[in-house]
Inverse folding.
């Protein structure tokens, strides 16, 4: 799933821009995926309490694969946008339930380590996808990565079929919307969960707003890099994140989850500003590597939510976690695209006019990281629970 998703990361802003739309609408295409997930995450967690998790995950994979083909064949901006929404539905179903599945099979005393391995394995897809996607786009055209995405996501059907069965925490047969809202509201009133929510938002915000939107736009417009170079940059960030994510999960089982998350948010703020003053591919590659390594410290976030959640409400807390994350996923590219539209400066490169991104959107992102880091200080420093 993540290999396929990251394959289109280097080209998605440019593909959307090819339909002659402004940067805000470019951000909307990146965000549409998250908008769709935002509305499905919580119902997916609720359904996972009652229905076969494997069957639901298979539905998610099929939706992602078919929508990728639709995006690659899009004849206009609105078809692309619609395809991204369907892709978001499928991703929400699959990823939310997969996260629940891992949380259920991970023992409490090794939860941080095992869930960070899970996140690290997702990153293995994210590591190689951008450079692979950039290579495919340069070789076969800008729509080719979408068809590769369809094939790769469909290949996830086989390992999903052979997963062992996991019992549901609630065996009621009917979907009760009133109970869904009641359980979600219960989690949002949990004093242990409330100060963690802004950090969840921020971590997803920077993933799409900084890494998937600002970095490609800044690298292409300000530094003049091509799609392949941008793919390499995103791969470097993914490698650095994977290097730190699994070890920090093991460490969090000993020292708690809050400290690594706090360090990730506070330190990544100045590094985000640092990206905006880079001047060539070597310089930005170094900064992106450091940035990715610091983001990897956020690996225990899903384990933190699992620690907080009552055992009979794990699926709901995970659904809320994914929903808040996807609100950040949506707001990131939309806000960053909007700030770029407001602050970009027109320049001439060769015979072409370009819009330079500059430092203001990076500064906005850095402020959001610092603010949510300060709020996290009020969260309990939970460790594994019995």
């Amino acid at each position: 799933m993540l290999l396929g998703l990251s394959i289109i990361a280097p080209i998605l802003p440019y593909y959307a821009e090819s339909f002659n739309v402004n940067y805000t609408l470019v951000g909307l295409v990146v965000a549409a995926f998250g908008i769709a997930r935002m509305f499905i995450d919580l119902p997916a967690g609720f359904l996972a309490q009652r229905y076969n998790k494997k069957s639901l995950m298979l539905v998610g994979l099929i939706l992602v694969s078919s929508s990728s083909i639709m995006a690659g064949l899009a004849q206009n901006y609105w078809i692309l946008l619609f395809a991204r929404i369907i892709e978001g539905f499928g991703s929400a179903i699959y990823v939310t339930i997969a996260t629940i599945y891992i949380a259920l099979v991970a023992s409490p005393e090794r939860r941080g380590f095992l869930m960070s391995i899970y996140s690290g394995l997702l990153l293995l897809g994210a590591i190689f996808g951008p450079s692979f996607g950039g290579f495919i786009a340069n070789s076969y055209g800008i729509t080719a990565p979408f068809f590769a995405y369809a094939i790769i996501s469909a290949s996830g059907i086989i390992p999903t079929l052979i997963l062992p069965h996991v019992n549901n925490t609630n065996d009621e047969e009917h979907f009760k919307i009133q109970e869904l809202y009641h359980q979600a509201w219960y989690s949002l009133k949990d004093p242990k969960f409330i100060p963690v929510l802004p950090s969840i938002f921020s971590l997803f915000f920077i993933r799409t707003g900084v890494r998937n939107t600002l970095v490609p736009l800044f690298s292409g417009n300000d530094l003049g890099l091509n799609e392949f170079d941008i793919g390499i940059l995103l791969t470097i960030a993914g490698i650095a994140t994977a290097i730190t994510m699994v070890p920090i999960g093991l460490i969090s089982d000993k020292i708690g989850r809050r400290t690594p998350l706090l360090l990730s948010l506070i330190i990544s703020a100045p590094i985000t500003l640092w990206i905006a003053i880079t001047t060539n591919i070597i310089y930005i590659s170094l900064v992106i590597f450091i940035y990715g390594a610091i983001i990897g410290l956020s690996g225990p976030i899903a384990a933190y939510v699992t620690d907080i959640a009552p055992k009979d409400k794990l699926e709901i807390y995970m659904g809320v976690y994914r929903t808040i994350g996807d609100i950040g996923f949506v707001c990131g590219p939309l806000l960053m695209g909007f700030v770029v539209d407001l602050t970009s400066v027109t320049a001439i490169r060769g015979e072409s006019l370009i819009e330079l991104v500059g430092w203001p959107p990076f500064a906005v992102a850095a402020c959001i990281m610092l603010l949510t880091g300060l709020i996290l200080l009020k969260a309990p420093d939970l460790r594994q629970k019995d």
Remarks:
- DSSP finds 16 helices and two strands in the chain.
- The CA atoms of residues 121 and 242 lie 8 Å apart.
- The chain has a mean pLDDT of 84.
